[in-house]
Design goal:
Length: 701
């Protein structure tokens, strides 16, 4: 049927459909707007919101919250003067602490602890007045900092667990706006460069912004309905993911739509054809990402298990927006949205040799050499994982050192004989005396004192001989946990114990979540590609990319960036995102390859045509996605910098090495066996029927 016959169909209905879709989105946005505005307020960045549910330190934190006064905010006021404190300095410190005590309700009377060299005096200040309210805690810490002022060469730093939590929460509180605007800026620049149009870039960018709003409202709904934890980390990652993945889907759809506008006179028919052509790939792509992220629900770590559904909502919001709102806007705007490079009906695309045509010719001539060379390169890069620094300590978790970290470092220098960070033990009230005696008799303990009691529990504050988060303190915590067996009914927690439990939980989660992600993605790929070999090939490729990206991180993090450790969650989270997102580009390529094979193309021609027609859009999508995750590297948290770096590098490796060279050459060498045991693997090879020249996607950008 000719194009003229096609465009006579539809009458009023095609003109009405996009307006109806636009109206529904407007209503949806008005309804969801107030909930999206509550997304930031729903974020929880307390210790319990990140800790694993089953850990001892989690139980300690919950018991502390239930003690009289609720959760305590513990601070350390550190007064220091190079060359030694004077009598006036000590009096000024005592006066400031007294003023703090009259301004706020403190737990006990702070006492001075002087360093052996006489240059530092420390006061431990604790209050239950703020409770569990984050704003109240931050106001308390800021108030104490206002009252504890530097004077006449006497430096004052406010540290301790409460100050560290406040500094961390302020960083997370600034993430939403910073990430949103930075990511929008990056995507804007890239879309302008890709489309070379003064108008077209506004369409996918606006739709991506609408998707981000829907995602925030949906994540808030999950939090309210099911108690899903929303942390600053998961909120930031969701923002990046919805804008990056949404823009990828838009690039694929608009690229196919541009092709179809040359075959269909009406934009409505061209959009329908584009959705039929690339819709399954977009659906499968978002499905693999959503399924991979949903596997994080099996994680024991609260922050990881909460990130799964939150990020999944972001991906699904991007999918819905890009397959409904974007097509409606494209139809309403018509061909003129592509100005000045408007694709005319019946015209042929520019016939120029694209980069991916040249790459295809290279891979076709030496497929084995290309495949082996690429595999060796990925393996060599993966060796860099041996150079990854150890676990990240709290003191090294900021790229820009806040006051709480400066105080921690001052204390470590001034009090080398004892830890300035308490280990907390909670014991049944009727066994508190026996537990206290047991704690004091444990090797590596400097002192231990009983604190609050209530609800059948007693809190015991313990200080180790060793500095915080050192091997010596780790041995002390392990000795406490081994000595306080089940007969005592006590639990050991505190900031350092929490870091140990985080690392242990991450190791457990990797063993559980990684196989689940691989299985879920494999099942979706089998359903889409009707093959067992092609999905296995894609999974092997993305796992190799993950190893190589981590290896590059090992060559960069400590030697070039000076990071003293890697976040315990880096391995798991980077794996989930790189596998789920990396498979996307494999889906785009292999789905087009399958289309060409179904049309009768022999294997090599199908692979080269798929590379030529999808190479440009995959490259554009990869650059956009990598750039959006690279925005995380501008943040002041080492863990997010490392995560953003590994994912960005992995996406670029996947885009320009694995998809372009390795998957293409492997498909050429496997020939029809790549579709085994599906029908395509059994069909005899035959020459493809003559067909119109396919548009070169890269040139259309």
């Amino acid at each position: 049927m000719g194009a003229a016959a096609i465009t006579k169909r539809g009458g009023r209905r095609p003109r009405a459909v996009p307006w109806v879709v636009l109206g529904l989105w407007l209503v949806l946005f008005l309804l969801a707007g107030p909930f999206a505005g509550k997304f930031s307020g729903a974020q929880q960045n307390g210790a319990v919101d990140y800790l694993p549910d089953s850990a001892d330190s989690t139980r300690v934190a919950r018991v502390q919250n239930a003690l009289p006064g609720g959760e305590s905010t513990d601070l350390l006021l550190v007064y220091h003067r190079d060359g030694g404190l004077t009598a006036a300095d000590r009096q000024r410190a005592a006066d400031q602490v007294s003023e703090i005590g009259t301004t706020y309700e403190l737990t006990g009377r702070p006492k001075p602890i002087r360093s052996q060299d006489g240059g530092t005096v420390m006061y431990a200040v604790s209050s239950t007045q703020p409770g569990q309210d984050e704003d109240a805690r931050n106001a308390f810490v800021d108030g104490v900092r206002d009252l504890a002022r530097d004077t006449g060469g006497l430096s004052v730093e406010v540290g301790g667990p409460g100050a560290l939590t406040t500094d961390m929460s302020k960083v997370f509180g600034s993430l939403d706006g910073t990430l949103l605007y930075a990511t929008l800026g990056v995507v804007t620049v890239l879309l302008i460069l890709i489309y070379r149009s003064p108008f077209l870039w506004l369409v996918p960018l606006g739709v991506a912004g609408a998707a981000a709003g829907m995602a925030m409202a949906g994540a808030y709904g999950l939090h309210e309905a099911f108690g899903i934890t929303i942390s600053g980390q998961s909120g930031g990652v969701m923002t990046v993911l919805v804008l990056g993945a949404g823009t990828d889907y838009a690039l694929l759809l608009i690229s196919r739509y541009r092709e179809e506008l040359r075959r269909h006179e009406r934009p409505y028919d061209a959009v329908r054809a584009a959705l039929r052509g690339c819709g399954p790939a977009i659906l499968a792509s978002s499905g693999t990402v959503a399924a991979g992220l949903l596997c994080l629900l099996a994680a024991d770590l609260n922050s990881s298990s909460g990130m799964g559904p939150v990020a999944m909502v972001g991906v699904l919001s991007a999918l819905v927006a890009m397959t409904t709102l974007l097509p409606a806007l494209l139809v309403l705007l018509g061909r003129r949205v592509f100005w000045p490079l408007i694709p005319a009906f019946g015209s042929a695309p520019q016939s120029r040799r694209s980069l991916f045509t040249a790459v295809g010719s290279l891979t076709a001539r030496r497929p084995r050499i290309v495949l082996v060379g690429g595999a060796v390169l990925l393996g060599a890069l993966a060796l860099g994982t041996l150079n990854l620094p150890g676990s990240l300590r709290q003191a090294d978790s900021f790229t820009e050192r806040p006051e709480s970290i400066s105080a921690m470092q001052t204390l470590a220098r001034a009090y080398p004989e004892r830890s300035s960070q308490p280990i907390t033990v909670v014991a049944p009230a009727d066994r508190a005396s026996a537990v206290l005696d047991k704690v004091r008799s444990t090797d590596g303990i400097a002192d231990a004192t009983a604190g609050r009691s209530g609800g059948g529990w007693t809190e015991i504050s313990v200080h180790a001989d060793a500095a915080p988060e050192t091997p010596g303190e780790t041995r002390t915590i392990e000795a406490l946990r081994a000595g306080l067996d089940r007969s005592y009914g006590a639990y050991v927690g505190g900031p350092s114990a929490q870091q140990l439990d985080l690392a242990d939980s991450q190791a457990r989660d990797r063993r559980v979540v990684v196989p689940l992600v691989l299985a879920a993605v494999f099942v979706i790929l089998v359903g889409l590609l009707r093959s067992l070999v092609a999905p296995l090939m894609l999974l092997v490729a993305v796992v190799a990319v993950w190893g190589a990206a981590l290896g590059i991180g090992g060559l960069v993090f400590h030697p070039l960036l000076g990071f003293e450790g890697t976040d315990p969650g880096l391995g798991l989270l980077s794996f989930v995102f790189l596998v789920a997102l990396g498979v996307d580009y494999g889906i785009f390529l292999m789905h087009r390859m399958r289309e060409e094979s179904l049309a009768g193309a022999e294997p090599q021609r199908a692979a080269l045509t798929a590379l030529r027609t999808t190479g440009g859009v995959i490259a554009s999508a990869g650059v956009v996605l990598a750039a959006t995750f690279a925005v995380l590297t501008t943040l002041p948290l080492v863990g997010l910098v490392e995560l953003g770096f590994v994912i960005a590098v992995g996406v670029l490796l996947d885009t320009f090495l694995v998809r372009t060279f390795l998957v293409t050459t492997a498909s050429m060498l496997l020939r029809r066996r790549v579709w085994w045991p599906g029908r395509l693997s059994r069909e005899p090879e035959r020459p493809a029927p003559p067909k119109e020249a396919q548009p070169v996607t890269a040139s259309s950008h």
